[in-house]
Design goal:
Radius of gyration: 36 Å
Helix content: 55-70%
Organism: Streptomyces sioyaensis
CATH class of one domain: Alpha Beta
CATH topology of one domain: Rossmann fold
Protein name: Tetratricopeptide repeat protein
Strand content: 5-15%
GO molecular function, one term: ADP binding
Distance between the termini: 145 Å
CATH architecture of one domain: 3-Layer(aba) Sandwich
Largest sheet: 5 strands, parallel
CATH superfamily of one domain: P-loop containing nucleotide triphosphate hydrolases
Number of helices: 32
InterPro entries: NB-ARC, NLR-like, P-loop_NTPase, TPR-like_helical_dom_sf
Number of strands: 8
Pfam family, one: NB-ARC
Length: 708
């Protein structure tokens, strides 16, 4: 028997009867060849019930898909979970239902999905089986085939390339192009313009507060009010993904339904990320992009795979801080080398910016800012064995950013920006080895803020440091007491004398019992307490405490120490004319010269001594000398600190009173009008300093009317 076979044919030879069964399977396990089930329907997770906000963006996008429009590409970029896909989905529905376009949706998250999806687009637009097979087998360029058929499409179209977070995939093979017949929309986390030449970029951020609250009410209308939803929205940073999951959780509770208030309490008390992700559909395989606890991990995994572990480390370091603007200068310090080489910080930061994991903001200081839910997610997934190093590095960075010896000066926005990050580091559960250091840093920051006139931030910083550390370090820990004292002094400057006095009394009493009457911390609290007592009309007790503070500082610090000289200068404002003229106090009137000799003419203590000396001269009715002294001080204060600085206003008030005594009534009233207005604006109408200024102004006006 002769026989032959060609190509895939076979020849079977037998001498007896044979039964042969042969099975053929045509196909491939290669996902690139499998193709999506549909490109005519968006492959999205849970679409929003109503797309909130986004009206301006959608208006522009809808205009681009109007009849006769084409040849444009739009890139919707933003952090994971901000709703880029939801915006693309809304446009897709509008384009297909209202504008009559063919809608084509491709998952561009990886090479296989992109290639199979785009070849399915070619098939939809008329490519033959032979053309598709050639493209799949690498016999002709796949991208060329797709765009050839898109260009020849008889119908206008909209092509969405969703989750294109790896633009290199699109660039390899030139998958992203434009065509006169259609519009291309890309959703991505990659914000850098160089990836998207010729495309119009549109940032998609978090929702406005009211719209964010309405998302929750859309999903769980029976759970609470718009006001209650607003509280949750704030705690979730108004991130659409987090809002959607929270709404899903609230709407699916059956046995024990939660109210929005209950959900809000659990957000505050528990693990925020885990609670949010409970809103995912438990009966389906959840895409990691649809969970706040996993969506950003995809990008971190990609960093590791591409040899950028420092980007992961930098994000974990940022997750120790607050979701508030963080000065860039903080990340450009040698101390950052504790977790990554300083030379690689720039590369790491650029990678995070490119992936929309953080963003640049300018609040008068160049900063980076990351979303709170993102930071919580990263913090919860940070390996425990790296927390100690991350915490200590964050601690050292903050320490280096705060002056070692804070001095008086104009308001410094850089310092104010550090406060929430220091508090966040304490809240993250700093290890015991860094907790005491952080409390000390917080007290120093509060002191620096206090001396720039930002008393509210000073109080918040010191008060938070005590609240977050006292239960661990103990209420009698030296650093905890020092932070308490600083909080009390800030309360005094905020005009809350009734709160400041008992706090400072208790702190000073504890410090004296634990450390002694002449301990620097005890004396510091004593100096602050005597200021409160003096302003509460308890002059005798205030003067006695001030004298004891002076004696203690002379003994422990020396007569020429700035703090000793500062306390001595305070005596100039406490004594009557008769007391100032007493022989024992006569040396006080030469105190400015003594300060200048020891500290220099421009030292803050020297200026303060001159200011108080001018008051003493006023009390002694030596108005011409007082006028010369206070004019110099007021001009220096305004030049160095600004006209709204608290002690600058105090000097101007004294200047007005002296002008009045010299008979310059109009000038005096004009000066006091200005001081009163500025104090009202900066301190509030009810602050004791403002009240005192109004009283002085009324007296000057009355005397002006009665002047001959």
């Amino acid at each position: 028997m002769d026989g032959h076979a060609e190509d895939g044919g076979r020849v079977y030879q037998s001498s007896r009867d044979q039964h042969i069964s042969e099975y053929h399977y045509h196909g491939s396990d290669d996902p690139a060849l499998a193709g999506p089930d549909s490109v005519r329907r968006p492959s999205v997770g849970r679409a929003p019930v109503v797309l909130r906000d986004r009206a301006e963006v959608l208006k522009r996008l809808r205009a681009s898909v109007a009849e006769g429009k084409g040849g444009q590409a739009f890139v919707l970029h933003g952090m994971g979970g901000c709703g880029k896909t939801a915006v693309a989905h809304a446009l897709f529905q509008s384009a297909t239902e209202a504008s009559g376009r063919v809608g084509l949706w491709v998952n561009a998250s990886d090479r296989a999905s992109l290639r199979s999806g785009m070849l399915a687009v070619a098939a939809d637009r008329g490519a033959t089986d032979g053309e598709l097979l050639a493209a799949r087998n690498g016999l002709r360029p796949g991208a060329d085939l797709v765009w050839e058929h898109l260009d020849r499409s008889a119908e206008p179209w909209l092509l969405v390339l969703d989750n294109a977070d790896d633009p290199e995939i699109l660039r390899d093979g030139s998958w992203l192009r434009t065509s006169p017949g259609g519009i291309v929309v890309v959703t991505t986390r990659r914000a850098t313009a160089r990836w998207w030449p010729g495309a119009e970029l549109q940032h998609i951020g978090v929702l406005p507060r009211e719209d964010a609250a309405r998302v929750l009410c859309d999903l769980a209308p029976q759970s609470g009010t718009l006001k209650q939803a607003s509280v949750i929205a704030d705690r979730l940073g108004r991130l659409p993904l987090a809002l959607t999951l929270a709404g899903g959780f609230l709407s699916h509770q059956v046995l024990d339904p939660w109210t929005m208030d209950a959900y809000s309490r659990h957000l505050e008390q528990g693990e925020r990320v885990e609670l949010i992700d409970q809103g995912a559909d438990l009966l389906s395989d959840v895409d990691p992009r649809h969970l706040v606890g996993r969506t950003w991990q995809l990008t971190l995994d990609a960093f590791e795979a591409r040899g950028l572990p420092e980007a992961v480390t930098l994000l974990r370091l940022l997750a120790r801080f607050a979701p508030e603007p963080l000065p860039l200068a903080l990340l450009n310090r040698p101390e950052i080398s504790g977790v990554l080489p300083r030379a690689r910080t720039e590369t790491a930061l650029r990678a995070l910016l490119d992936q929309s994991l953080t963003e640049l903001v300018n609040v008068g200081v160049r900063c980076v800012q990351s979303h709170g839910v993102l930071l919580d997610s990263v913090a919860s997934a940070t390996p425990s064995d790296s927390l100690s190093t991350l915490n200590s590095t964050a601690c050292r960075l903050l320490d280096a950013a705060i002056p070692e010896l804070p001095d008086a000066g104009p308001e410094d926005p850089h310092l104010r920006l550090l406060s929430p990050h220091l508090i966040a580091l304490l809240q993250r559960g700093a290890t015991s080895s860094t907790l005491a250091d952080l409390v000390g840093i917080a007290t120093r920051l509060a002191t620096a803020l206090h001396r720039t006139g930002d008393y509210l931030s000073a109080w918040e910083t010191a008060h938070s440091a005590v609240a977050l550390s006292e239960h661990i370090l103990g209420s009698e820990h030296r650093l905890v007491l020092a932070a308490h004292s600083r909080a009390g002094r800030a309360l005094f400057r905020l005009g809350k004398y009734a709160e400041a006095e008992p706090l400072l009394r208790q702190v000073r009493s504890n410090q004296e019992r634990l450390f002694g009457a002449c301990d620097p911390d005890t004396l510091d609290s004593g100096h602050g307490l005597q200021l409160v007592l003096g302003n509460r009309g308890k002059q005798a007790e205030a003067l006695s405490l001030l004298r004891a503070t002076i004696a203690g500082r002379q003994s422990s610090l020396g007569p020429a120490h700035p703090l000793t000289l500062r306390s001595r200068a305070s005596l100039l404002t406490m004594l009557s004319a008769a007391e100032l003229e007493m022989e024992d106090n006569s040396a006080l009137l030469s105190l400015p010269s003594e300060c200048e000799r020891h500290l220099g003419p421009d030292h803050t203590v020297t200026l303060g001594a001159r200011h108080n000396h001018a008051w003493a001269l006023y009390v002694l009715r030596r108005f011409d000398e007082a006028d010369e002294e206070i004019r110099l001080v007021a001009d220096t204060y305004e030049r160095r600190f600004g006209s709204d600085y608290p002690i600058a206003l105090s000097a101007q008030q004294l200047y007005a009173r002296i002008q009045h005594k010299l008979g310059h009534f109009e000038a005096a009233v004009s000066l006091m009008n200005d001081v009163t207005e500025r104090r009202t604006n900066s301190l509030g109408a009810d602050h004791p300093f403002t009240t005192a200024s109004r009283k002085v102004l009324a007296e000057l006006k009355e005397d002006r009317r009665n002047a001959p």
